[in-house]
Structure formats: structure tokens, C-alpha cells
């Protein structure tokens, strides 16, 4: 390369394919991490299951329940590892840092809820020889994608006396699965008149669950009756128990390697368990005692606007931080809490859309993230004129560049589609309210919110590596 060419190269910037940059050592670790991630993802099909799997991983790594400290008043000291649960759905995991909490935390926050079909409170009916369950979709789905794919049902029944019955049907190869039927092309003349958005009405997303009638001669709806008999025998529940149940219909498949070169993972629920898992693992792998208190947030309800008591818009995080302050400081003080919040740095760990070669017109190629070009930093999200975005500052972007460069994290910049094509948001803006520095940082996906999404393995590993470097940074 001539001097002139060298100069030119150093002046220009273009994100490269990470596989051309990654070291052999990292490549090996990348494989290991992705195997562990696929195992987690295959078990964590709902927010409750993600929570429970996460707690299991944390406890194995020496984390204990902060509720115990809260109850007995036992203070926390630098290096201590604890977690704090919210209703068995949202979870906060903490490694106490050397500096007082007032100096701020380093937070990586993702979400563990994913688009799905929720079973209604009075779901069962039968029609023309078939029993079905009525559902209400959760999150932004393209409804037509959910027809004719194998489905599983996960969730809980809670009896009035508090007894909880967990169910999971459709994951074991011996289990039955469920499905939503579609009309055959031969008879689809009416369906074809609709556009893709209206062809499948939400109310018609009903899951086929049975077709054998009960032997009970008195029963009015014999097939439905037979199902109730099966459910009662297996789970000791009645039709009334659906009133206090949370049952989620999700794709029945396990995560699979994708591509001849196995460089991708095809799976349900990457959004946002891919960032949640890598954040959790990055925290577990924090070496020694970090300078700043490191926090992972795995929250619920992001897909429907972070609402409700387990969503990021609730006071859960603020209350949990107050508890943490009370357990780490000599004396609890409101001003210290406000300072802890506003001095914090956060990576809002959520997915972004990858440049899709089949839909190039939705993206602007220079600024769209590309598969396996590294973990994706998204300075701003939002729609139209950046509406709803929390637009990170150039100063904070510069800190992230510094941390990632120092730790050989392969990363790229991304945006959510070309201008005026649509848009979206994450939990970033909810955290920015406290005055903390926040930027979106996560893994790019193909087919986001589809029953099967695609993520790049190198991107997944670099998310882990980036989050870990962020926790260890001394500013
Ligand atoms: Mn998400
Ligand atoms: Mn989403």
C-alpha cells in the first residue's frame, strides 16, 4: 500500500464484516457463548421462564436474593453479588462496586417479554367439530406469520388459594403441539382481496386444541367438555381457573444454527433475550470488584410500551435502587438516590433491524447495521423527526467508542430503517428521565417480531464482550 493510499484509508470509515477482524481466541469464545445462549433461549420462552432461568444462572454464580438483606438489614459491601425480583417477571442483578452508589451505576438493561399470543380469560369454545382457544396478541406482530406454524402453550394457573400450577406443552418431542389454521389457496379468493395487514384479523387468531368428543352424554359441547376433562386430570384445573391464568402461545421450535457456515441462529424470542442473556453473562463474568456498581435489568412489558407494575415505566427500578442505597450507604438519603441515578451510565440493550437484502428499500445502506458486523450502537431511535427518541449525546457516544476500542469490541452504528419508513423505541428514554447517560446497544436481527428471528453469532458475542467491558470501565 502506498503512503497516499494508507492516508486515505485512515481518513475514511466503513464497518467491516467482523469475521475478518475477530481473533482466533475470540472466535472460540464466540462459539461457547452462543451454545450457552441457545440453551438458555430454548428454555426461556416467556418472561416468567426467562426470569427463572436467569435466577438459576445467577445463583450458580454466587448471587443471592437482596430480599434477604432487606429483611435482616445485613449491609452490602463492594464485590457483593445480589439480585432483586419484581413479581417473578422483572429482574435486577447487581455487583456492588468500589465507589459509593452516589457516584452512579453502570447499567445494562434489556427486556425478556416477546411478541406472542396470550390466551384469553374465557378462551375455550367448540365449533363445527373442533375445539379452539381464543387469544389476544401481545406486542407488534404480523398476524399472517402465526398461521400454520407449530405452537406451544406456556404459563401459569393461579388458584384463589394462591396455589400456582405451571404448564408447558409443546416443547418436549413427545408433547403435542397446537396450531392456527389457514384457508387453502384453492378457496382463498376472498382472503386475497385483503392486503397483508388486514388478511388475518386479530380476533381470528384462535388456536386449534382438540377434536374428540366427551363420553358424557349430558354435555352440550362434547369436544370442549373432553378437553376440560383432560386438563382437569392433568393439572386439576376447571374452566373457571382460566380466569386467573396467564397462558402464552409461542412457537414450539428450539433455536437452531442457521446457514451452511452456522454463522447465525434462527429462533423465537431473540428480541430481546439475546441482549438480556448476553448482559446477564457479562455481569456474571465481571472479574473482581468493578469501580462502579454494575447492574443488569431484565424487564417485562417492553413490547407493549413498558407499562404495568413490571414494566420499565413503573417505579420498580427507582425503588430497587433506593433499597440498594439503603443497604450500601451509611445512611439513606433522597439526594444520594437522585445523584446515583443522574450519575449513572446505561446501555439500553435492545435489538435493531439488520439491513435485509430482500427488502433494501426499507433501509439506507450506509447507516443500517449489517449482520455479523458487530454489536450495534443506535444513537437515536424514534419515528419521523426522531419523535420519541432519547438521542444519546456525542459525548456519551465518545465514551462508548473509547471503551469498545480499548477492549477490541467489534461494533457498528445502526439506525431503525430509513427516514420516514417507520420507527420504534426502547426503554432508553425512560432511563434518560433520571438524567443518566443512555444509548441503545444491542444485536441486529432479521425478521424481528416474527415467530422465527435471525441473529448473527459474532454480533451476539460482541454484545457480551461490549457489556462486560462497559461494566469494568473506570471512566
Ligand atoms: Mn426489543
Ligand atoms: Mn420488540
What does this structure look like?
The strands form 4 sheets. Strands 1-2-3-13-4-14-20-16-18 form a 9-stranded mixed sheet, sandwiched between helices. Strands 8-7-10-5-6-9 form a 6-stranded antiparallel sheet. A 5-stranded mixed sheet has the order 11-12-22-21-15. The chain has helices at residues 3-11, 24-43, 47-60, 66-72, 189-192, 222-235, 270-284, 316-328, 334-342, 394-406, 428-432, 457-472, and strands at residues 64-65, 81-86, 90-95, 105-111, 116-127, 130-138, 151-158, 164-169, 207-210, 245-251, 256-258, 264-267, 293-299, 345-348, 352-353, 375-378, 382-383, 411-413, 423-424, 437-442, 444-446, 453-456. It is globular, with a radius of gyration of 24 Å. By secondary structure, the protein is α/β, with parallel strands linked by helices. The longest helix is centred in the first third of the chain and has 20 residues, at 24-43. Helices cover 29% and strands 23% of the residues. The two termini are 37 Å apart. It contains 12 helices and 22 strands. The model has no long low-confidence stretch (mean pLDDT 96). The protein has 2 domains: 3-114 and 268-472, 3-Layer(aba) Sandwich (Aminopeptidase); 116-251, Aminopeptidase i, Domain 2, CATH 2.30.250. It binds manganese (II) ion (MN) (2 copies).
Q: How helix-rich are the residues, as a percent range?
A: 25-40%
CATH class of the largest domain: Alpha Beta
Strand numbers in spatial order across the main sheet:
1-2-3-13-4-14-20-16-18
Catalogue the ligands.
Answer: manganese (II) ion
Shape: globular
Ends distance:
37 Å
Please give the largest β-sheet.
9 strands, mixed
Low-confidence region ranges: none
Q: CATH homologous superfamily of the largest domain - what is it?
A: Zn peptidases
Number of strands: 22
CATH topology of the largest domain: Aminopeptidase
Radius of gyration: 24 Å
Give the strand content.
15-25%
Could you report the average pLDDT, rounded to the nearest whole number? Answer: 96
Helical run tally: 12
Amino acid at each position: 500500500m502506498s503512503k497516499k493510499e494508507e492516508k486515505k484509508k485512515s481518513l475514511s470509515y466503513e464497518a467491516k464484516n467482523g469475521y475478518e477482524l475477530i481473533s482466533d481466541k475470540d472466535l472460540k469464545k464466540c462459539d461457547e457463548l452462543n451454545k450457552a445462549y441457545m440453551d438458555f433461549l430454548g428454555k426461556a420462552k416467556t418472561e416468567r421462564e426467562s426470569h427463572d432461568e436467569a435466577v438459576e444462572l445467577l445463583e450458580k454464580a454466587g448471587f443471592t436474593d437482596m430480599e434477604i438483606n432487606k429483611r435482616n438489614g445485613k449491609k452490602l459491601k463492594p464485590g457483593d453479588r445480589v439480585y432483586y425480583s419484581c413479581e417473578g417477571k422483572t429482574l435486577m442483578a447487581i455487583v456492588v462496586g468500589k465507589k459509593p452508589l452516589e457516584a452512579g451505576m453502570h447499567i445494562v438493561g434489556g427486556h425478556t417479554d416477546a411478541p406472542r399470543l396470550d390466551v384469553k380469560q374465557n378462551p375455550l369454545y367448540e365449533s363445527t367439530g373442533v375445539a379452539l382457544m381464543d387469544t389476544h396478541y401481545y406486542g407488534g406482530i404480523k398476524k399472517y406469520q402465526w398461521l400454520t406454524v407449530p405452537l406451544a402453550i406456556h404459563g401459569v394457573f393461579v388458584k384463589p388459594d394462591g396455589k400456582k400450577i405451571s404448564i408447558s406443552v409443546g416443547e418436549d418431542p413427545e408433547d403435542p403441539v397446537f396450531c392456527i389454521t389457514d384457508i387453502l389457496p384453492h378457496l382463498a379468493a376472498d382472503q386475497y382481496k385483503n392486503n397483508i395487514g388486514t388478511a388475518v384479523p386479530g380476533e381470528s387468531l384462535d388456536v386449534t386444541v382438540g377434536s374428540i368428543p366427551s363420553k358424557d352424554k349430558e354435555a352440550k359441547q362434547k369436544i370442549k367438555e373432553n378437553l376440560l376433562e383432560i386438563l382437569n386430570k392433568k393439572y386439576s384445573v376447571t374452566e373457571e381457573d382460566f380466569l386467573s391464568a396467564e397462558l402464552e402461545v409461542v412457537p414450539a421450535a428450539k433455536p437452531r444454527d442457521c446457514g451452511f457456515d452456522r454463522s447465525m441462529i434462527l429462533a423465537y424470542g431473540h428480541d430481546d433475550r439475546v441482549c438480556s442473556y448476553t448482559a446477564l453473562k457479562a455481569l456474571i463474568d465481571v472479574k473482581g470488584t468493578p469501580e462502579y456498581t454494575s447492574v443488569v435489568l431484565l424487564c417485562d412489558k417492553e413490547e407493549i410500551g413498558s407499562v404495568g407494575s413490571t414494566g420499565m415505566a413503573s417505579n420498580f427500578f427507582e425503588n430497587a435502587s433506593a433499597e440498594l442505597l439503603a443497604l450500601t450507604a451509611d445512611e439513606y438519603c433522597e439526594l444520594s438516590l437522585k445523584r446515583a441515578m443522574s450519575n449513572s451510565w446505561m446501555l439500553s440493550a435492545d435489538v435493531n433491524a439488520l439491513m435485509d437484502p430482500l427488502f433494501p428499500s426499507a433501509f439506507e445502506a450506509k447507516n443500517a447495521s449489517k449482520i455479523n458486523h458487530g454489536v450495534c450502537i443506535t444513537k437515536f431511535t424514534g419515528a419521523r423527526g426522531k419523535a420519541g427518541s432519547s438521542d444519546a449525546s456525542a459525548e456519551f457516544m465518545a465514551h462508548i467508542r473509547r471503551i469498545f476500542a480499548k477492549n477490541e469490541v467489534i461494533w457498528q452504528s445502526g439506525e431503525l430503517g430509513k427516514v420516514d419508513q417507520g420507527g420504534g423505541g426502547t426503554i432508553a428514554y425512560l432511563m434518560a428521565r433520571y438524567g443518566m447517560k443512555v444509548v441503545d446497544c444491542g444485536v441486529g436481527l432479521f425478521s424481528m417480531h416474527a415467530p422465527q428471528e435471525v441473529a448473527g453469532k459474532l454480533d451476539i458475542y460482541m454484545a457480551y464482550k461490549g457489556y462486560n467491558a462497559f461494566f469494568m470501565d473506570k471512566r
